[in-house]
Structure formats: structure tokens, C-alpha cells
Amino acid sequence: MSETHTQSVHDGDGAPQQDIEPSSEITRLGSLYSKTSIIFVILCTAGLGMGLAYTFGIPIGGKRLLEGQYYWFFIGIFSAAAFIAMPGRKSQRTVPFYDIIAACLAFGISMWFSTHAWDIVQAGWTNIPAGVIFWLLMLEIARRAGGTPFLLVVLILGLYPIVADYFPGLLMGIPYDFDRMIEAHVFRTEGMMGITTKIVAEIVFGFLVFAGVLIATGAGEFFIDLANAGFGKYRGGPAKVAIVASGFFGSLSGSIFSNIAGTGSITIPTMKKVGYPAHYAAAIEACASTGGVVMPPVMGAIAFVMAITIGVDYATIMVAAILPSLLFYFGLILQVDAYAARKGLVGMAPDKLPNAREVLKRGWPFLSVMVFLVWGLLYMRWEYYAPWYACLMMIALSFLQRDTMMTPHRLFGTLRQIGVLVTQTAAIILPIAFVVSALTITGVTGSMTSGLIALGGDNVYLIIALGILACFIMGMAGLAIVAYIFLAVTLAPAIIEIGGLNTVAVHFFIIYYAMLSVITPPVGAAAFLAATIAGAKPMQTSFTAMRLGIVIYFVPLFFLFQPALVLQGDLTPLIYVLPSIIIGITLLSGGLEGYLLGFGMVKPLLRLPLAAAGFAFSFPGLMTTAIGGVLSALLVAWVWWDNKDTDSKTVA
């Protein structure tokens, strides 16, 4: 998990400069103008230039880049950047000689392969010894980016073709010897020349550049100030600020861990100051940051993978994510509000809050650029071009204010920030090519789908239950994106075939449950990171995050059976389904936290029944909604009567 912490520095003319300094435990670039940092920025600037040339068809040396040429340029540049920026061990502060050799090898082999791009496509050119070296280098990058668990997932699944014929039943596939496997993994469209490289080098690249420009010009601080101005004065204000700020920030960065590092380092201490326990503050940040990854407009790389997998444009995915993400944040805000009401926590002092008018006056360029990006994606359908145009607009608007002006110092910091984001993302996404290749060439995905259908016995509910379990297990073992890619080609077709369910809803269902592994014990990586910042116990934080994020555990089931919630098909059911879900989430939150909005405290013996009734009322089914509605009415009346008696005694 390669993420960054936000630090503020100043440029030469005294204006505040938003510079992202990589975490000392993850990166080793050092100060902004260290030798390592300068080399890293030069490399990444070259990669940025190649990306611009390929995207907009700008000739280099009188010729446009071929797809294969550009892919190998991208892979070589950012693989070398990964060996420079990402330490092999946490304690490393400098770049050892063997990492310099690894960087040179990754860069040199990729550049050599780029000269054979045409032959690779047309004549099937390969070089197995060089391919093996490159494969080993990518495995090491996988270890540095995602840790040993991620390495094991990529390695074991990547080697599956060698032993595919030894597995029984639905796990049996077409076997490949080692040389043919390397050929497929490295040189063919099933592997490095396929979907994974396309995602990071073409689709996500522009959005990462856009996020880097926004963050480097101060968007992170603006969104935190905006959330403070809007929510800071209310009870439990800092917690609501953390939720809103993480939603905004996550929609830019598309990364759970950089979201926690960027906003959590500010919001968690503030929450603790007003009375939230350390584990609760950390859990709030972990949940809010997790939801940010599926919060439009940018979202995470997994959303782009989904768009390609099901063959729709990104705008469709972005629109489909709106209601589920809003419902999740609605439930989270209700829970922290209920906790604050039950514990008597107040908001922040007015004199410590930023003035909303001043915040908007300073940050209107960021809002304008966000609106422009959404307009470009939804109305103009610019797709890959939209974030590049938005970057140009942001750079132009930065000159209107001294605090954001793109000075040479700030430009260098921006290039470094972009480089860090792209390098980290590439280091996670590129090795997944070996997993995709292994699943594709062996044909195991088809047998897995048919096996799941046979195992489920045509019972869609049983297959969904198996799918939820698979999402959690695979999400814990590696990364959500690995789990999604595997389940999208095995589980999703089975659910769609048996249940006749909406394709977009099914794929979102898989994404949500795969993503939830980062807050779910025993391997809640996001909760653990937030706990480190808060000085809390990791497992306690993870269990608290699981309770706070309860809505996100249920929402996927809701839109799976009612696709109108992801704005698919007939939207008429939203007229009655959406209000019932909102009321149900309110009841569910009140039961979990012991305080029902508008009614008051909930007795311990009523909390679990109230939460269960809220879930039943919100579930999109006539019978469950009716039963849940009756139970909810009775329980709410009980809560009202209890608080009426309490108020009467207080007055007396």
C-alpha cells in the first residue's frame, strides 16, 4: 500500500505551497529537490510527455506512437520510477545499488521491447530470457506496492497455467509450459499488452494527472475547509467534517489509503479533541475513505476496469455510483450524529471555523474544474480527454490567485505529486496482468462459471452467498481489484444467467463487497492504517469501522435486486423504494448507535430489534418492506414513549 502524507511547504515568494511528501515508511524521495527526487521527476515528466503525445496523437520524430510502443515506454518509465521511489524494506532511506540496477534493467528491457512493438503484434516476436527477467522485476514491484500477500496472489495465480491440468473439476484448465506462459504474460494481449496496461496507461492516467494537479494546488485543504464551514458547528462536527472531506478527497484521489493519509492526519486529531475515542475517530476516517473510492466523479481504478469489463462508457459507471455512495454517506453521518447526541458531544467553536464565504472565494476554481470535468464526462462524452482538459483549466485558473499560482517551484512539486500517484497506481495495476493472462489462456473462467451454476443448483441466493464469501476472502488475500477481475469473469456471469439480474448492478455488487475487506477483520488494512494515525488498537478500530460501515454491507444487496438504485432500467420504483431505504437506514443507524434522530435515546433492549426492523423496511421487497414497516412503527412508538416519559420526569 503505497500512499502519501500531505505536508505544507512554502515557495520562494512566501505563498503557501501544497506539496505531497511521500510517507517515510513507503517512499524515499526525500526533500523536494533531493537528487533522488529530481531523477524521479525527470523520469515521470518523460512518462507524462509520452502519455500526452499518445493520447492526442502528437508525432514524435515525425511518427505517431504505436499502441505497443507507448505501452512499453510507459511500463519502462514507471517501473524504473517504482524501483527509485519505493523501498524494498521500510527502513531504507536511500536507493541501494541493486535498486539502481533493477531500475536500469526494467527501463532498458522495456525500451528494447518497444523497438519490436510492431514485430510483437504482427510476427509474434518474443525473447523468453528477457521476458523472464522482466517478469521477476514486476513481481518485485508487486511486493513493494502491495506487500507479500499481494505478491503471493500474483505469483500463485500467475503460475497456475503450468499446473492447470492437475486441478479437479471446475478448477481444471488448459496447461501451458513455462516458456509459453511467459510469452502470454509478457508479450501478448492476454498479459502486459492487454487490459491492465490499457487501464493505467490510457484510461486512468489522465485522471491521476488531474488529481495530482488538484492536490498540489491546494484542493485537499479547500475541501477540508469547506466541510468545516458547512458541518463543523453541528454536534460531532469534526466527525461530519471527516466524512464529507474524505468523500470529496476520495472522489479525486481514487485511493483509500492516500485518502486516509491525506485527510485523516488532520481530521482524526480534531475528532479526538472534541471527545471521540481514538478507535472511533479512526474507524470514521477508515469508513469515509473507503466510500470515497466509489464516489463520483473520479472514483478508483476499479471503476475503469469495470467499464472495460462490461463494455460501457465511464459516464455510465459514474452515474450508476451516485445513489449507492450517497446512501452510504447518509448512513455514516447519521451514525456519528447519533453517537454525538448520545455522548453529548458538541460542535467546534465558531471562532475556530473558517468563514464559508471566504472559503468559496478562495476555492471556487476547484469547484469550477470539478463541474467542468463532470460536464465533459457526462454531456460531451470526452472520456479519456476530459481530465486532460480539466488539468489545463485548473492550471490556467491557478494564476488568478497567488496561493495557487503555478510557479516553477509549485510546478516541480506538482510533477512530483503526479509521478507519485501514477507510479503507485502502475505498481499495483501492472502486475495484475499476470493474473488476467493466467485466467484467460487456461480457459478456467468458463468452467468456474458453469461450476458455480451447478454448485448453486440454480439457486441465485446461494450463488450470491457464495459470491459474498469469495469477495471477502479474495479481498483479504490481495487487493479489491484482483478480486473484482477474477469474480467479474467467473461469478458475475453465473449470477446474471441464473437470476436474470442487471449487469451493472451485479458488477457493482462485486466491487462493493471486494472493497469492504479493507475495513473488515481480520485484515482490515484501511482500519489498521487509520488506527496507526489515531494511536488506537487496530482490531478494535476494524470492528468499529465494520459497525459504522454497516450500510455499505447492505446497500449492494439492495441495488442487486432493485437496479433502479444504480439508475438502470425503469426508474419508477425509486418513487417508493428510495424513501423506504432512507427511513430504513435512519432506523438502522439509530438502533446501532442507541439514538434515533428526532425521537431520542434508544434503550439497549430495543437497539437490535430496531436495527433489524430498519433493515427489513429498507430491503426492496414487498413482503420484507411490509413486515419491517409494521415492526418499525411499533418500535419507533416505543422509543417515542420512553423519551416522552423521560422528558416529563426531567420537567417535573
UniProtKB/TrEMBL annotation:
Domain TRAP C4-dicarboxylate transport system permease DctM subunit: 134-569
Gene Ontology molecular functions: transmembrane transporter activity
Residue ranges crossing the lipid bilayer per the database entry: 38-58, 70-88, 95-114, 120-138, 150-171, 203-224, 280-308, 314-338, 359-378, 384-400, 420-441, 461-487, 519-536, 548-568, 574-596, 608-641
Membrane topology value: Multi-pass membrane protein
Region spans: Disordered: 1-21
Subcellular localization: Cell inner membrane
Main localization, broad class: membrane
Database matches in InterPro entries: DctM (IPR010656), TRAP_DctM-Dct_fused (IPR011853)
Task performed by this protein: Part of the tripartite ATP-independent periplasmic (TRAP) transport system.
Domain of life from the UniProt record: Bacteria
Phylogenetic classification of the source organism: Bacteria, Pseudomonadati, Pseudomonadota, Alphaproteobacteria, Rhodobacterales
One Gene Ontology CC term in the entry: plasma membrane
Signal peptide: none
Keywords carried by this UniProt record: Cell inner membrane, Cell membrane, Membrane, Transmembrane, Transmembrane helix, Transport
Protein name: TRAP transporter 4TM/12TM fusion protein
